[in-house]
Specification:
single chain; 330 residues; alpha/beta; Spore Coat Polysaccharide Biosynthesis Protein SpsA, Chain A; 2 domains
């Protein structure tokens, strides 16, 4: 383990579960450039074949950091478990920021985060950064929809699954208290939806608070898991999506429009995945959905919109609240 840390416990732990070296220097440069240094950086090397340790060595005099190379690769089997063992490296910092080895943060992110925490007297358990998409060279591509100043857990769920809002692991900071109270992250295969479900339960009834005046750059590259639509990965993603959908149906059971909301999301998932997965996987997804949501009489309607009229549904859904159950953020 390589480390350079002060005796003082900082307010923020920045956690990087590291495996890929390609963009790691850019991520570390953005962290080293923070205008506020009230944090410790923890890097957990997931037994990577790439030179993670050599890269980290170049930053030992630039930032308070702890580096550990694990003897076994865990992220390839259980990504959430890798996140959690990296967080276990941290000390008693009251706030945790799970970052990545390829994204970047603006220089004032930590400063603005701590200012917002002080302004809100630490009321929230989740603080959110708005996101810009960057390309492989780090150039700006597009700006994702900004969150409102405070977003409820349910409106976050609806906004994320409808595509109006982004949700990446790196854009949220959470309290150590809520992380420990909830027993860590929600767990889904490939960690697909684990962050979404975790932000929901971490936010609880308070919602999440947006940090103004600072943004995170999420890198869209060939190394992301997101563009991988190989049949094996696509089928695992679809199963994870179904598990999240059914969990949310139970979690938000008191919301009057949760069924219409999930029905629309189910159509969306089937529409997007049907070209990449087997017919057996589609049938299993239908069985899984209706086993929890019931209302089997809706099956022809869902089949019609997901398969027969292709993308027309997605152009009309915002006009028909009975179909989509849509509403604007309050």
């Amino acid at each position: 383990m390589s480390e350079r840390v002060s005796d003082m416990t900082h307010r923020l732990a920045i956690i990087i579960p590291a495996y890929k070296a390609t963009f790691l220097p850019a991520a570390l440069d953005s962290i080293a450039a923070q205008t506020c240094k009230d944090f410790t950086l923890y890097v957990g090397d997931d037994c990577s074949p790439e030179p993670i340790g050599c890269i980290i060595e170049q930053y030992k005099d630039k930032v308070n950091l702890v580096y550990q190379r694990f003897d076994t690769n865990l992220g390839g089997k259980d990504l959430v478990a890798q996140w959690e063992r990296c967080i276990a490296m941290s000390r008693e910092e009251p706030y945790i920021w799970l970052f990545s080895d390829d994204d970047v943060m603006e220089p004032n992110c930590v400063e603005e985060l701590l200012r917002q925490i002080e302004k809100t007297e630490g009321y929230y358990d989740v603080y959110h950064f708005n996101v810009d998409i960057i390309n492989e060279s780090g150039a700006f591509k597009r700006r994702k929809q900004d969150y409102p100043s405070v977003l409820s857990a349910y409106d976050f769920y609806r906004g994320k699954n409808s595509g109006r809002l982004s949700a990446f692991v790196v854009e949220n900071v959470f309290t150590r208290n809520v992380y420990e109270q909830m027993g860590g992250f929600m767990k889904y295969d490939l960690a697909w939806g684990s962050d979404v479900a975790s932000w929901i339960v971490f936010s609880g009834s308070k919602g999440m608070c947006t940090v103004p005046l600072a943004r995170v750059g999420w890198r869209q590259s060939s190394q992301n898991i997101t563009p991988d639509y190989s049949p094996q990965i696509a089928e695992r993603k679809l199963k994870a999506q179904m598990a999240l959908l059914n969990w949310a149906y139970r979690y938000f059971a008191e919301e009057p429009d949760i069924y219409t909301t999930n029905r629309a999301f189910f159509i969306l998932f089937i529409h997007y995945n049907r070209k990449f997965v087997s017919k057996e996987s589609i049938k299993e997804a239908f069985d899984t959905f209706f086993a929890v949501h019931e209302r089997h009489w809706d099956m022809p309607l869902i089949y019609f919109f997901a398969f027969l009229i292709d993308g027309i549904y997605f152009r009309i859904r915002k006009r028909f609240t009975w179909l989509y159950g849509d509403r604007k953020n309050k």
